[in-house]
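User: quick one, sequence for these tokens?
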């Protein structure tokens, strides 16, 4: 059994996503911008962020698989669905749901760098710091979180809870 506790309401998420979109729009005005969403977790965040951006941009997606099960990412990551956009010379914004250990976003950044974009920025809805294994400098962060497993607004636990409009912390263990 999981017990859920409200962490970020849909109103506060909406407010924050609009602020991020405003900042990104100012920073990258006049540039050739490609949003690269990391499936599946970032699909709702990207959809909202993209609709609040005030600058032209294109959208693409990548899907990554990490070996090892449960809620801790391992170091072995592969691309199971690549982007289809030529990002050479462009400003790439990686859109992530959450950065935890940092392995996923570090791997993705290295793979994208090989394709010679002009810049790569990282925009994550949640920056969860406690289990960080690799230093990651996210350029745009919605919420900073110390610890806890969160679900909703795209984030899942075992494929459940992705479509909840708010974000909750799950407490496991008590039957
Ligand atoms: P990292 O490689 O450890 O940074 O892991 C990032 C990925 O792990 C995220 O994109 C999520 O898919 C997953 N993840 C890490 N923490 C959570 C969480 O609290 N809720 C849901 N998914 C999470
Ligand atoms: Mg993810």
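Assistant:
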């Amino acid at each position: 059994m999981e017990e859920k506790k409200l962490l970020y309401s849909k109103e506060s998420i909406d407010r924050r996503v609009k602020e991020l979109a405003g900042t990104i729009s100012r920073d990258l005005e006049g540039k050739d911008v490609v949003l690269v969403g990391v499936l599946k977790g970032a699909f709702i965040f990207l959809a909202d962020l993209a609709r609040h951006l005030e600058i032209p941009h294109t959208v693409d997606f990548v899907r990554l698989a990490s070996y090892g099960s449960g809620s801790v990412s391992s170091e072995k990551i592969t691309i199971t669905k690549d982007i289809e956009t030529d990002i050479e010379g462009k400003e790439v914004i990686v859109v992530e749901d959450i950065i935890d250990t940092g392995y996923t976003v570090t791997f993705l950044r290295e793979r994208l760098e090989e394709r010679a974009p002009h810049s790569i920025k990282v925009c994550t809805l949640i920056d969860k710091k406690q289990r960080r294994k690799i230093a990651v400098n996210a350029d745009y962060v919605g919420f900073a979180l110390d610890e806890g497993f969160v679900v909703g607004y795209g984030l899942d636990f075992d494929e459940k809870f992705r479509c909840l409009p708010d974000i909750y912390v799950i407490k496991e263990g008590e039957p």
